[in-house]
Write a structure and sequence with these properties.
Helix content is 0%, strand content 65%. The protein is mainly β. The strands form two sheets. Strands 1, 2, 3, 4, 5, 6, 7, 8, 9 and 10 form a ten-stranded antiparallel beta sheet that branches. A hairpin with a 3-residue loop joins strand 8 (69-70) and strand 9 (74-81).
Length: 227
């Protein structure tokens, strides 16, 4: 897959390690401290999933535990990764930034049978996240549930970085949404080719389950003023 665009999300609470990566950069957290890398990241298909090579000697074996799902231009697959969990996503329709102000990617990973993925695109010129196009997926006890409406809310600090997040997942035939709540435990920000990226590790709670996940907010930088 290294010849295709991809996204990696990885969390291992047992060893206090987490990472988010693309082909040309990676953010890695160890014991809450973030390091950014602009070195190549490799992803190679294996019979059971993928081998990923991240900077700093972080070599990971992703083993599929779900069928892929469509997630806002990506085909995302849940995986087990040693004592942790992760998501490998093949990006077949990358964001068209001339038409967007921001994207938000969230994963809340509880165990091999319970997880939530969400992706939101905010059209250019929209008033706020209320106009976002949001898609979400829920695995509950190993079953992929259909979601009619995914609502993603976030509390930011004064510099626009996520501090807390919540998800409401409305399923067909259910009178109340299934809710998940996340609190940031570590974060980092960086600039990438006209984009500001605010990424964070979160502790998640959902239906008496506790998990860990990632939140990635990418915002298009304002165009420079005309001379």
């Amino acid at each position: 897959m290294s010849e295709s665009a991809f996204s990696i999300a990885y969390v291992d609470p047992a060893h206090n390690v987490a990472a988010t990566a693309r082909s040309g950069f990676a953010l890695i957290w160890r014991d809450g401290d973030a390091s950014s890398h602009d070195e190549p990241v490799t992803v190679t298909a294996t019979p059971h999933g993928w081998d990923a090579g991240l900077p700093g000697g972080l070599n990971l074996q992703f083993v599929r535990i779900s069928h892929p799902v469509e997630l806002g231009g990506m085909r995302a697959t849940l995986c087990s990764v040693g004592t942790g969990l992760g998501v490998i996503s093949e990006i077949h329709d990358p964001p068209h930034w001339q038409d967007l102000d921001a994207t938000r990617y969230v994963c809340a990973l509880f165990d091999a049978q319970n997880a939530v993925l969400a992706f939101a695109r905010r059209p250019a010129g929209s008033a706020g996240h209320g106009e976002e196009l949001v898609v979400g997926h829920l695995w509950a006890d190993g079953e992929l549930k259909g979601i009619e409406d995914t609502r993603l809310s976030t509390i930011y600090d004064g510099e626009g970085r996520p501090r807390q997040s919540s998800l409401e997942l409305w399923l067909p035939g259910e009178d109340f949404p299934r809710r998940a709540f996340g609190r940031v435990t570590a974060g980092a920000s960086l600039a990438l080719e006209g984009l500001d990226v605010h990424a964070a590790v979160l502790d998640w709670e959902m239906e008496q389950r506790e998990g860990t996940g990632l939140y990635e907010l990418t915002v298009r930088e304002p165009a420079p003023a005309a001379a």
